[in-house]
Write a structure and sequence with these properties.
It comes from Streptomyces finlayi. InterPro entries: SUFU-like_domain. Pfam families: SUFU (PF05076). This protein has 201 residues and is of the alpha+beta class. It has one domain. It has five helices and eight strands. Strands 1, 2, 3, 4, 5, 6, 7 and 8 form an eight-stranded mixed beta sheet that branches. A hairpin with a 5-residue loop joins strand 7 and strand 8. It starts with a helix and ends in a 14-residue tail after the last helix. 35% of the residues are buried.
């Protein structure tokens, strides 16, 4: 199987995994303007938009193709990770933020991500929010059934959650560790999709 067909098979498997997990929700591919600029430069990337439903009462956006092998040598070997973002509303901005994260992860100058890493957004994830980073975390809102995806030809992918966090929370994580930050967030009963939530650090 050539690389193009293999990538298409992988992307289809990723899409099927998301659609199956969110059965009962409306799920659509919403690539928006991913063909323009650096955020559209991650080859083979698609974004799925999942409406509220029985699995979650928020909107969910997920990548399909962030785990494809990078075309550049520096990005080789970083297969396996996809990303999911929970959101309070339907907005093409979330597809753009996911595409930006995928590009950050496996673009020409990659910053390989994993659990406990952070992604600087460069601005508030939503207007009026203090959160300007993503914390890469296990998908606590959905569990291992979404996290673990078996693909054709013996390949696997993991869906990791992008939780919006503040700069001060990232500073706290750097000093005290990811687990300590997650404990603070849990103790404050933070609603991760609330753009107006207060920082816990």
């Amino acid at each position: 199987m050539d690389t193009g067909n293999a990538n298409a098979t992988t992307t289809a498997g990723l899409e099927n995994h998301v659609r199956s997990f969110f059965a009962g929700h409306s799920t659509a591919r919403v690539d928006y303007d991913l063909g323009r600029g650096t955020r559209g430069s991650t080859s083979g990337l698609h974004i799925l938009e999942v409406s509220p439903g029985p699995r979650a009462d928020s909107w969910t956006y997920a990548t399909a193709g962030a785990s494809l092998p990078s075309a550049n040598a520096a990005g080789a070997g970083r297969q396996g990770l996809e990303f999911v973002l929970s959101a309070p509303a339907r907005d093409p901005r979330f597809a753009d933020l996911l595409a930006m994260t995928a590009f950050y992860h496996r673009g020409p100058e990659p910053h390989p991500l994993d659990v406990g890493h952070s992604v600087p957004i460069g601005e508030a994830w939503l207007p009026g929010s203090a959160c300007d980073h993503f914390l890469v975390s296990l998908p606590y809102l959905h569990g291992p059934a979404l996290e673990n995806c078996t693909l054709p030809h013996g390949h696997h992918a993991r869906f990791l959650w992008l939780m919006p966090v503040t700069s001060s929370e990232i500073a706290y994580r750097r000093t005290h560790g990811t687990e300590a930050l997650e404990q603070l967030l849990d103790a404050a009963a933070v609603n991760p999709v609330d753009p107006r939530r207060a920082s816990v650090a």
